[in-house]
């Protein structure tokens, strides 16, 4: 950037094969140090509920034992982008300038990967829950799809608190809509979450390092297996716990811009976790004018490699 620079498990039925301070344009998605917030209750949270009591749709043993996810379904999958830019006055949160650039970059990238993308701007906590609940319940669609993506761009706080335009929600509550029996048609399929939000107020000043240039086939019987409810989820955050995430007022956030660039260049040839490592590298090499740093963090319970194999026309 130039000058002017943020539990239970689910059965699988095997079938026969078939911010605040600004710095030269840099802002964070963190809260003021003395900012207090009240958590809104997750009244329609799916935790402890089940939308289906039977086994999930079938999977061949070959598919179950494969080292890569099956990405040859009819559809790539649904991608939801929730982009919160403006917040109600009582929250005393600044407008997230530059976030629309991130939203547009994500939209274009997810479309290029073959996803059906849905964009949602400036949503309350209740609206966010409704969007995600409706998405998790779209069984007919998920049954035909490879995977699911959700990207949330908003203000955040410690312990993975995320902001709707009117209050807060824990990221774990969002994840619960898509776990196990709450979303049976995505069991055994990758569920990918990308979060651009601060996870605290600390900033990373970095550590000096000298860099030196140097040269020198399958069973056909039906059987029942179980998949852990927490399996097949990837969560990629723009920063590590406790730290702020930088966002440029004009160019967008370091994390989302790096993510979309790396995905766009490499999705046809590289697996997702490798690409996310490249994202970490790209963001880690950036620095504000006051020498603040950032590194994203992803955690994964994926059980296979994710390759976005191009769909045949």
TrEMBL record:
Membrane spanning residue stretches:
none
One Pfam family name is Peptidase_C14
- Chain segments carrying region Disordered: 1-60
Which superkingdom heads the taxonomic lineage of this protein's source?
Eukaryota
- Keywords of this protein's UniProt record, alphabetized? Apoptosis, Hydrolase, Protease, Thiol protease, Zymogen
Where does the Caspase family p10 domain lie? 223-310
Task: State if Hydrolase is listed as a keyword.
Answer: yes
Name any one GO molecular function: cysteine-type peptidase activity
In what residue span(s) does the Caspase family p20 domain sit?
75-202
Answer yes or no on keyword Hydrolase: yes
- Stretches of Polar residues bias are at 16-25, 41-54
Matching entries from PANTHER family are given as: CASPASE, CASPASE-2
Write out the similarity annotation.
Belongs to the peptidase C14A family.
According to UniProt, the name of this protein is Caspase-3
Q: What is the lineage of its organism?
A: Eukaryota, Metazoa, Spiralia, Lophotrochozoa, Mollusca
